[in-house]
């Protein structure tokens, strides 16, 4: 069995626990990577027979696998790589900032400015009081 399939399943399960904890950023990242790795792992796992269905035609297999990775737009591959790299870099930086905030809250008892989203997201208790 390919290691990507159980890794993807584990990421999706971990994402559900992040959602329970209220960490929507971690939920989104783990879900996205988990579903990608799960699908990729299912394609390259011999049990599902995807590789065997192409037989000795490795060029067609690589073409199909490339379409899965690039979502079928081979001409946009370079632009997708650049955009994906930029988004991955920004996502990583935001992740490090969030982890730094959580670590400072626990160890040094101060937090970084994370932005005020209270005008977009209301607490359940405040919504229940407003409805009365």
Walk me through what this model shows.
With 132 residues, the protein is mainly alpha-helical. It is 72% helix and 0% strand. It has helices at residues 4-21, 24-44, 50-53, 58-70, 77-107, 124-131. Helix 1 (4-21) runs antiparallel to helix 2 (24-44).
List the helices and strands and how they pair.
Blueprint: H1 4-21, H2 24-44, H3 50-53, H4 58-70, H5 77-107, H6 124-131
Helix pairs in contact: 1-2
Gist?
The chain has 132 residues and is an all-alpha fold.
What kind of assembly state do the chains in view correspond to? single chain
- How do the SSEs run, as a string of H and E? HHHHHH
End-to-end C-alpha gap: 56 Å
Shape: elongated
Spans of at least 5 consecutive residues with low confidence:
none
Give the tags.
132 residues, mainly alpha, 72% helix
């Amino acid at each position: 069995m390919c290691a990507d399939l159980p890794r993807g399943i584990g990421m999706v399960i971990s994402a559900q626990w992040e959602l329970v904890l209220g960490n929507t950023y971690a939920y989104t990242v783990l879900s996205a990577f988990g579903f990608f790795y799960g699908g990729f792992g299912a394609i390259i796992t011999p049990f599902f027979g995807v590789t065997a269905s192409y037989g000795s035609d490795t060029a067609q297999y690589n073409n199909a696998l490339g379409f899965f990775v690039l979502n079928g737009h081979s001409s946009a591959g370079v632009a997708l790589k650049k955009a994906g790299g930029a988004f991955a870099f920004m996502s990583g930086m935001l992740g490090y900032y969030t982890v730094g905030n959580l670590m400072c809250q626990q160890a040094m008892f101060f937090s970084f400015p994370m932005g005020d989203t209270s005008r977009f997201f209301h607490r359940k208790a405040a919504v229940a009081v407003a409805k009365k």
